[in-house]
Amino acid sequence: MMQTLPNTKTITRDILPNGLRVLIYETPHTHSVVISGSVEAGSLFESPAKSGMVSMLASSLMRGTHKYDFNALHNTLEDMGANLGMSSGVHKIGFHGKALAEDLPVLLELLSEALRHPTFPTEEIERLRGERLTWLNYRQQDTGWLAARSIREGLYPDLHPYHYANTGTLDTIPTISIDDIRDYHATHFGAQDMVLVIVGSVDSAQALATVRQYFADWDNPHQPIPPELPALISQQPHYDRMKVAGKSQADLIMATLGPSRYAPDYHAAVVANGVLGQFGMMGRIGEVVREREGMAYHVSSRVDGGYGPGAWRIVAGVHPDNVDKTIALCRAELARLVNEPVTADELRDFQSYTTGRLPLQLETNEGIANSIHTMEGYGYGLDYLMNYREMIDVITADDALKAAQAYINPDNLVIAVAGA
Amino acid sequence: MSQVTYYTLPNGLTVLLKEIHTAPVISMWTLYRVGSRNERTGTTGASHWVEHMMFKGTKKYPPGILDGLIDRVGGQWNAFTSHDSTMYYETLPAEYIHIALDLESDRMTNALFDPDETESERTVILSERQGSENQPTFWLREEVRSTAFKVHGYHHEIIGDAHDLTTMTRDQLYAHYRHHYNPANAVLVLAGAFDTDDMREKIESYYGKISTGTKPDLFSRPEPTQLGERRAMVERPIKTAFVMMAHRVPQATHPDWLAMSVLDSILTGAGGSIDNKTSRLYGALVKSEVCAGMSGGINETIDPYLYTISMTLRDGHTHQEAETLLLAEFDKVCQDGITPAELSRAKKQARANFAYETESITNQAYGLAQSSALGDPTWHDTYLARLESVTIDEALTAAQRYLIPQNRTVGWLIPTG
Questions:
Q1: Which residues of A172-205 are buried (b: 16+ CB within 10 A; e: fewer)?
Q2: For A3, which of B23, B92, B127 is closest by C-beta distance?
């Protein structure tokens, strides 16, 4: 059988007059519906002194609305076996919900309530604050979390929003007032450039009519345009080793500034990274560190680029005695990646891996919704999946080499080690 | 939903086939009826280590070749070991299913267990365990489990005790493999875009040539009756306190398991894709601001296991406070039972979760494999119908039967700074 990838002809796309972008894809063989999307109100606008405020706001959206208090909101969801959750990032507030298909109208109504009419009840916000502080306290001994924080702070200067954890800190969370949250919501939340993706056993026309019912009159003329990210200069070499009591292992991250998803060489970097630390048993570094030396259960690499330049990082969990050797082995593999092109076999393997797995990524409504949100969010166009194979297959070993050389200097890395 | 074709090859291999034509994908699961419950002291973790060695090559697929085989065609594959079984799966574009059939039929009996590869993997597995040890709750879970089970193999972690991982020999591992890996102790499940008759022919061509296997004796020791509440204390240099409370409950094929599953849904939430903010324990523990979080769950196991509730304490609150609140909720459910509305909601949530989970071909194949592990290939497919029959009285009886001190193990994770 043939599977048609979601594309311009099969995705219903509409932009409401208020700027809300709606995308609907029908999967009649399923019983459920997934909604997924984002609002242009991430922590990009947040001041360092209030770090964590947007994250607190996102969590507060499901704590009570004009029409539904906390209990009514969650009773309605859980009674129908549905879920609706919010998340926050630097650029966007995200949302994700799932229900049986017949319950889509209720899910959309609750989404509208949460985004447009939250009440931020004092009792709920204070409970949330206590939960957040407990969570942050726990993270003070979390080796993976500590290493990631050190990498963030080493790669991005303190005037850059990527420098900060969007969860906030033990110092900032207590200072965030309900008025801070309320004001931010009033100013920054609106339908302009909001993305709403609906995938499931639904009728597109009916679903679109329901979206209009709950969102067409949402207008915030004050909604600000997201600011440009500050320019970045190359990081300085940095090594941070943090001793954490009571641990058996060390979490190691080696990172450099990588491309954003808009960079022309982003996909070439993804291919180079696939060879470095993804394909098969975690690529070249998996072969050396895990398979040959037996030094780590987990070692891999990834390119984190999104709306802005993310980290290109190697992540490993190793015994403390093996930290230096692992760093040396990974550094050698990075040097190899920037000094010689990947082989024809390696290139072909990763190309067929990354294009061949598309059907698996689209096996569920969540997978399809994520793909459509990516296409719309990054402005790739709705035929991106259809063109993906061609786009990846034209990347050459030389393209991958140049991408690696553009971002990686094996002698200029930010390295963080946390653990025993 | 299409029917499952169920048959056994002459060499003893059990086969389950289910056609699903919603995507051009096939998911194949190979199950061996051996897990950590079948391990003896001194070789704990052997099942999991054998699982790792299955990726270290055969004569036909030497190390290094196997790694890229599935990735190269855009598939995904992995394996995991549980208390009761070891499973390997490949989900891949339908036209490449022959790759999975060939490699799995080959490594069923031809894995090399090269001594150098075995030694290299020893440190990888120790690293895996050490990664878990970095999480303070790992120590609490290990302590609670080993306190709840004194005799049965459920007492040790699936990954094994650190000492055994250091001392186990290549020959002990290979013996474990040879004893448990043969067609008679295996189940092969395929779900996805294929024609059943055509797939039967393929399976015959790949697996028919494997010698007839003998069902191995599976080492297992029943746990004696518990005579009173047990307690475990763990100290770690952290700042957050945790409580874990476990009650011994029956195996997944026991009629009371379903009633306990309904009770769990009402007490701690339905799990899966559904939140737990209207559950009884969220109200008692989290809304009261004694705990920052709470979760619970009951496992699908061959032998009686544990119904476990975990609580993360907020700063300034004591283990005893959380424990007292939890026991008060248990007393309430044991005295007053559950309401018709609660029962109805638990069933609706189970139906929703089932619908969500079975949209993926991989999950449908897993459901059949897991059912086979429990000894009843229909367990998953009949789950909802059986759940519908659970009554308020049965839930009350289950609460009174199992949520008692004589079944209970309580663990405290005490922060020392």
A1: bbeebebebbbebbeebbbbbbbbbbbbbbbebe
A2: B23
